[in-house]
Amino acid sequence: MVVIDSISKGIVIDHIKAGYGMKVLEYLGISANYNTIAFIMNASSQKHGRKDVIKIENLTDVDLTALGLVDHNATVNFIEDHVVVKKIKLRLPDKVTNVIRCKNPRCVTSSEGGVPHIFHLVDERSKEYRCEYCDDIVRAVE
Ligand SMILES: [Zn+2]
Question: Alpha-carbon distance 37 to 25, whole Å?
C-alpha cells in the first residue's frame, strides 16, 4: 500500500532506485527554495528492495522525459485532494533535447551557442545516447 498522507496536492515520485533521489531532483531542476519537498531515502519496498521516494507539494507538471532518463523504473503519482488521480510508469525516452549534454569539444553544440543538445537512444540497457550532430555516445546516468 502506498501511503500518501503528507501532501494533498502535488506529485509523488515512487520506486526511485535507492540513492538516485538527489539525481532526480537535480535533473528536474526542483529546488527546495521554491517547493515543499518530502524526500524519503532508503525506504524499504516489498517489490524492489530499497528505494527513494520524493513528494513535491503543489507541483502539477513535471518533465517526464528527464525523469525517465534518471530512473525509468520509477512511477509518478499525481495527487489531488489526497487521492491519486493519475499514475504514470516511466520509460527511457527515444529522443531527448537539452537534458544531457554533448562532451565532445569539437561538436557544434560546444563551438556554437544556442544549438539544442539532441540525443537519440542507442541502447536501453546501458542507457547510451548518440549525439544528433557528432555521433558521440553519452551515457544518460552514470
Ligand atoms: Zn555532439
Answer: 10
Q: pTM for the full model? A: 0.76
Out of 3.30.450.180, 3.40.1180.10, 3.20.20.70, 3.30.70.140, the CATH code matching 10-89 is 3.30.70.140
In whole angstroms, what separates CA 16 from the centre of its chain? 9
pLDDT digits (tens, 9 = 90+) for 60-92: 888 888 888 888 889 999 999 989 999 999 989
- For residue 44, report the distance from its CA to the centre of ligand 1, in Å: 40
Question: Which grid coordinates belong to 20?
Answer: 538516485
CA of 16 to the centre of ligand 1 (A): 29
Give me ligand 1 centre to Cα 22, in Å: 26
- Measure 133 CA to ligand 1 centroid, in angstroms: 5
